[in-house]
Amino acid sequence: MRCYRPVDVKVGVLALQGNVSEHIDAFRLALSRMGEDASSKVFEVRHPADLVGCNALAIPGGESTTISRLIEKNHLYEPIRIFSGGIFATCAGMVLMATHVDDTRVHTLGLIDMTVDRNAFGRQRESFEADLLIKGLDGGPFHAIFIRAPVATSVGASVKVLSQMNQGIVAAESGKHMVFSFHPELCGDTRLHERFLKTLRSRQ
Ligand code: GLN
């Protein structure tokens, strides 16, 4: 039997646009697989006050130009920039976490020292799935779903690359933050969510 110490987390999911409910469900599933009562621990974040008490934040995939605009509109840019918890960001979320991106319409948060190519794999119809090896992840390859996915084309020394394809870096970790080009919230495999939560707890 697997035995975990309780994960004392409150997870906020940025709920402005994109895969919000999928992230909420994935975090709840991850917590319950870790033996936790998930219902009281995952919340939507729409306004700065919603971040109070959160020690984890998910930034979902969707459309980075739109999410960027809504972050500013809802006065969340600075509160997220100074958020002291860990951030789990997927696809458009990964674009927003970067220091540099190839599109001036995206006002990135600059929380991970990396340059991102927003649509490195092309358009929606070029979406694909692939089994990826992810550094430090037990249990074999991760079945990753890529939808208009970005890549990181370069990263600073503070960033640990977790997985890479020919086009560039598709998974990375920096301090308490994790970013993915693909959509771990869509495949029912919660190993990455669990790893993020365990890492956060070990740092608390
Ligand atoms: N490449 C898209 C963007 O920059 C993200 C796509 C996605 O989140 N599925 O917005």
By oligomeric state, this entry counts as single chain
Number of strand segments = 12
> In DSSP terms, counting alpha (H) and pi (I) runs of 4 or more, how many helices?
5
* Contiguous runs where pLDDT drops below 50 for at least 5 residues: none
Structural class: alpha/beta
| Cofactors and ligands | glutamine
Share in β-strands = 25-35%
Radius of gyration computed on alpha carbons? 16 Å
**CATH topology name:** Rossmann fold
Largest sheet features: 7 strands, mixed
Shape: globular
Whole-number count of domains: 1
String of helices and strands: EHEEHHEHEEEEEEEEH
* Spatial strand sequence of the major β-sheet: 2-1-3-4-12-11-10
Tell me the CATH superfamily: Class I glutamine amidotransferase (GATase) domain
**Mean of residue pLDDT values:** 94
CATH architecture term: 3-Layer(aba) Sandwich
CATH class placement = Alpha Beta
Percent of residues in helices comes to 10-25%
The rounded distance between the terminal residues' Cα atoms is 25 Å
Topology at a glance:
Blueprint: E1 11-14, H1 20-33, E2 42-45, E3 56-59, H2 64-73, H3 77-81, E4 86-90, H4 92-97, E5 98-101, E6 112-117, E7 128-132, E8 142-146, E9 151-155, E10 160-165, E11 168-174, E12 177-180, H5 191-203
Bound molecules: glutamine.
The site of glutamine has 12 residues, from helix 4.
Structure commentary:
With 204 residues, the protein is an alpha/beta fold. It has a single domain (11-203), classed as Class I glutamine amidotransferase (GATase) domain (Rossmann fold, 3-Layer(aba) Sandwich). It contains five helices and twelve strands. It has helices at 20-33, 64-73, 77-81, 92-97, 191-203, and strands at 11-14, 42-45, 56-59, 86-90, 98-101, 112-117, 128-132, 142-146, 151-155, 160-165, 168-174, 177-180. The protein has a seven-stranded mixed beta sheet. A three-stranded mixed beta sheet has the order 5-6-9. Strands 7-8 form a two-stranded antiparallel ribbon. The longest helix is centred in the first third of the chain and has 14 residues, at 20-33. The model has no long low-confidence stretch (mean pLDDT 94). The structure holds glutamine. Glutamine (GLN) binds at residues 61-64, 91-92, 95, 118-119, 147-148, 150.
